[in-house]
From TrEMBL:
Keyword annotations from UniProtKB, A to Z: DNA-binding, Metal-binding, Nucleus, Repeat, Transcription, Transcription regulation, Zinc, Zinc-finger
SUPFAM superfamilies the UniProt entry points to: beta-beta-alpha zinc fingers
Keyword Coiled coil appears in the UniProt entry: no
InterPro entries named in the record: Znf_C2H2_sf, Znf_C2H2_type
GO cellular component, one term: nucleus
Any one GO molecular-function label of the UniProt entry: DNA binding
Pfam families: zf-C2H2 (PF00096)
Protein name from the UniProt record: C2H2-type domain-containing protein
SMART domains: ZnF_C2H2
Subcellular location: Nucleus
Gene3D superfamilies: Classic Zinc Finger (3.30.160.60)
Source species of the chain: Umbra pygmaea
Residues in C2H2-type domain copies: 114-141, 142-169, 170-197, 198-225, 226-253, 254-281, 282-309, 310-337, 338-365, 366-393, 394-421, 422-449, 450-473
Length: 473
């Protein structure tokens, strides 16, 4: 039986003796030469070239460190019955065989004979070096025929084209979710297994993906090697730089096939598509609550662990979310990065800006399902609905009186404390509530902001206007 470790010359098959030694050797053996270029039948009277026995020298190659078959179609044949041209061809084939064997053996020896003349990085295979050099030359020979985007590697192009075709050949056998890349499937499956094989040697934190570990380690080193040539901002990861540069170019290469909305990042598209599918692949192992995004699950789990990993370096206050820390630090810096384009008022947080802009637009997106009254803020709707339900969640610890609104409880408690922190700068009279001070100051200014739309009469207090309107009704 032919050894699986022999490197043979196509189109010949070899039937060697059983006493061949498992090592490099030149051994003269009797072999049958079957020329498949002349016929595809192994027998029959109509064969153009008949079977024959020739005595030839066969070089046997045995890689004893592996059972892997090296893909080769070459072997040295020499001896009687070969023409000079055939002998030269077999000599060339022998050289190719030796080269392939050496490449294969680099896997075992760890040898990396091919070095980059730009950065010195070394590789076991010349083809890998060729691909690596494209980092320095920016060569991208492979182009997408759909959108024109170009790539340095053929495999990256094939993966990219699945964005256009929607092909997802890799499926999870646990939940059925499908992926366009094998690596994404492997990463996803760690959600089910909980495996985190990559650990930080600085703080011990573990990660399911090696890339996440690399990103995390830059927290310790502070390294930011990638710089934006437009604004000079620096980044720890090349991918973050590429994404950032889209803020300058406005490029949004990823589009939703359901609603057409486009995104600058593929991850944002994936998250967005879960709005359409309702998919929530991330589940809490404590309470079972499920989430569409892994980040939301991480934040949620801190409710159970009480972990607050983000600390303010000004006052020491700690937070469970990095975004909350960033917002908090604006108290110390006074930064208000969000501005209203209608009136110029600025805010430290984006949420209050969104709510403020509804003053200008009149938008009231939150509606009561009991009375159809609409509100510009979700919190105001929740408070309003307590009129229908009778819920009063806030109780006074002095007298037990309960309130539907937290602010009403705070005002009530000042009855017990006698606190009047708000003073009038005209007459010195003091008030427990800021709203009462504002109302009082109208006695000095004569301001009457509330007007009747029936007769035009104006009032300093909204309650007086409500009473007046009953005359018309």
């Amino acid at each position: 039986m032919m050894s699986p470790n022999l490197f043979l010359l196509y189109p010949f098959y070899f039937y060697g003796g059983s006493n061949m030694r498992r090592q490099w050797s030149l051994k003269t053996v009797s072999v049958r030469l079957v020329d498949f270029r002349k016929t595809s039948e192994m027998g029959g009277s109509n064969m153009r070239r008949q079977w024959s026995l020739k005595r030839v020298s066969v070089r046997l190659v045995d890689c004893r460190k592996t059972s892997e078959m090296v893909d080769s179609s070459n072997c040295l044949l020499s001896g009687s019955g070969l023409s000079p041209g055939e002998a030269d061809q077999h000599l060339d084939n022998e050289k190719k065989t030796t080269k392939l064997l050496k490449k294969h053996q680099h896997r075992h020896t760890g040898e990396k004979p091919y070095g980059c003349d730009q950065c010195g990085k070394k590789f076991a295979r010349s083809g890998t070096l060729v691909i690596h050099r494209r980092i320095h030359t920016s060569e991208k020979p492979y182009g997408c025929d759909q959108c024109g985007k170009r790539f340095s590697q053929l495999g990256t192009l094939i993966t990219h084209q699945r964005i256009h075709t929607g092909e997802k050949p890799y499926g999870c056998d646990q939940c059925g979710q499908r992926f366009s890349q094998l690596g994404t499937l492997i990463t996803h499956q760690k959600i089910h297994t909980g495996e985190k094989p990559y650990g930080c040697d600085q703080c011990g934190k573990r990660f399911a993906e090696s890339g996440h570990l690399v990103r995390h380690q830059k927290i310790h080193t502070g390294e930011k090697p990638y710089c934006c040539d437009q604004c000079g901002k620096r980044f720890a990861l090349s991918g973050h730089l590429i994404t950032h540069q889209r803020t300058h170019t406005g490029e949004k290469p990823y589009g939703c096939d359901q609603c057409g909305r486009r995104f600058a990042e593929s991850g944002h598209l994936v998250k967005h598509q879960r709005i359409h599918t309702g998919e929530k692949p991330y589940g809490c192992d404590q309470c079972g609550k499920r989430f569409a995004q892994s980040g939301d699950l991480v934040k949620h789990q801190r409710i159970h662990t009480a972990e607050k990993p983000y600390g303010c370096n000004q006052c020491g206050k700690r937070f469970s979310q990095s975004g909350n820390l960033i917002t908090h630090q604006r108290i110390h810096t006074g930064e208000k990065p969000y501005g209203c384009d209608q009136c110029g008022k600025r805010f430290a947080v984006s949420g209050p800006l969104v709510r403020h802009q509804r003053i200008h637009t009149g938008e009231k997106p939150y509606g009561c399902d009991q009375c159809r009254k609409r509100f510009s803020r979700l919190g105001t709707l929740i408070t309003h609905q307590r009129i229908h339900t009778g819920v009063k969640p806030y109780g006074c610890d002095k007298c037990g009186k309960r309130f539907a609104v937290l602010g009403n409880l705070v005002r009530h408690q000042k009855i017990h404390t006698g606190e009047k922190p708000y003073g009038c700068d005209q007459c010195g009279k003091r008030f427990a509530l800021s709203g009462h001070l504002i109302t009082h100051q109208r006695t000095h200014t004569g301001e009457k902001p509330y007007g009747c739309d029936q007769c035009g009469k104006r009032f300093a207090l909204s309650g007086k206007l409500v009473t007046h309107n009953k005359i018309h009704n």
